[in-house]
Amino acid sequence: MIDVTDRYCRYFHRLLAPHARLYTEMITTGALEYGDVERHLRFDASEHPVALQLGGSDRDALVRSAKLGEQWGYDEINLNCGCPSDRVLKGSFGASLMNQPLLVADCLKAMQDAVGVPVTVKHRLGLDYNESYDFVRDFVGIQYQVGVRVFIVHARNAVLKGLSPKENRDVPPLRYDMAAQLTTDFPDAIFVLNGGINTVEQSVQHLNTFDGVMIGRAAWHTPAVLGQMHDAIWPRTPRLSEDAVLHAMHAYLQAELATGVRPRQITKVMLGWAHGKKGARQWRRHLSDPDQMARNDAAVLLEAWDQLLQAAAVNDLEPPATLL
Questions:
Q1: 35 three-state secondary structure
Q2: H helix intervals, 22-58
Q3: Rounded distance, CA 97 to CA 119, Å?
Q4: From the candidates 9, 81, 83, 107, which is the catalytic residue?
Q5: Cα 213 to Cα 161: distance, rounded to the nearest angstrom
Q6: What is the value of pTM for the model shown?
Q7: Is 81 a residue of the active site?
């Protein structure tokens, strides 16, 4: 979720799902060593619980980055060993690290020794076309031996040669049964399932086997599903109404604009919120229109909402189509 789950996106997602654990986009150790630390690590207190997801393979750099994450108040430090981006081969991080399980274990052990918050790992089932269960079992087992107890499993292989990052999200087959076998072989570890989970029904079903589910692209393209999942998993805990979420985001947008943030940085995370509703196209158009964004006015959000409500009202008044 590089360039997706930034702090603006996470703030919005927290409003939709009060109990979900949020994860940052993968932030490389180099970005924290040589870049703007505050830009990468600053977050709103409402985001808790929130985890910092790191990319890297240098033990000392990962330790320094983990310490920074703890200092900034993150509740978990996660090492990404699942990203299939073509950049991972050049930088020796992400999914390519699954070929170096001992190095990963060394890094994770050092990070655990350096911070007091949980250190976790996200990984794939395998690399390229090696579909042997032994590969992922041994990878998990080596990390388990150094004390890691939380594993986020993307139930696909990562094909690093021949497939694009987008194709890696769809082409390698999902193998939930193999991911489930890990829960049997490591019964006292926590396994969170990732990959191909788009609906409430899927989430509830997988929670019969796994300790949690991680939602990625579905949360971006159809964010309303987060609220629906919250209702299914925590039915006794109320969440904000759509109108309350809208006004909370309006206040947030006003505050962020005052600091120099461009409106598009925030409105883009909400484009999919109206998915499936009458007026969704107008909603997306208004919140991405260059002229509207140039106004630098938080009112653009309220205007888009009014247009959405008007479209729904018009639809309710229309007579049903005549069947021929």
A1: coil
A2: 29-34, 37-41
A3: 16
A4: 83
A5: 28
A6: 0.92
A7: no
CB 7, CB 43: distance < 8 Å: yes
Q: What are the C-alpha distances in Å from 58 to residues 93, 110, 111, 125?
A: 9, 11, 11, 23
Of the candidates 176, 166, 157, 217, the one whose C-alpha atom is nearest the C-alpha of residue 25 is 217
Distances (CA, A) of 149 to 120, 144, 181, 204: 7, 6, 16, 23
Domains of the chain are: 7-233 (3.20.20.70), 242-317 (1.20.120)
CA dihedral (101, 106, 110, 112) positive or negative: positive
Q: How far apart are the first and last CA of the chain?
A: 47
Structure tokens at 49: 């619980």
Task: Give the distance, in angstroms, between the CA of residue 26 and the centroid of all CA atoms in the same chain.
Answer: 9
How much is the pLDDT for 314? 72
Task: Tell me the two tokens of residue 81.
Answer: 């060993």
Please state, in angstroms and rounded to a whole number, the distance separating the CA atoms of residues 252 and 140: 41
Binned average pLDDT, 10 residues per bin, the chain of 324 residues: 87 97 96 96 97 96 98 98 68 83 98 98 94 97 98 94 80 95 98 96 97 94 96 95 97 97 96 94 96 96 95 62 38
Q: Measured between alpha carbons, how far is 277 from 271 in angstroms, rounded to an integer?
A: 12
List the beta strands (DSSP E) in 62-196.
Answer: 76-81, 119-127, 150-158, 190-194
- Classified as helix, coil or strand, 289 is coil
206's CB contacts (< 8 A; 6+ apart) are: 176, 193, 197, 213
Per-residue tokens: 185: 């072989």
82-105 in b/e burial notation, b at 16+ Cβ within 10 A?
bbbbeebeeeebbbbbbbebeebb
Rounded Cα distance, 69 and 72, in Å: 5
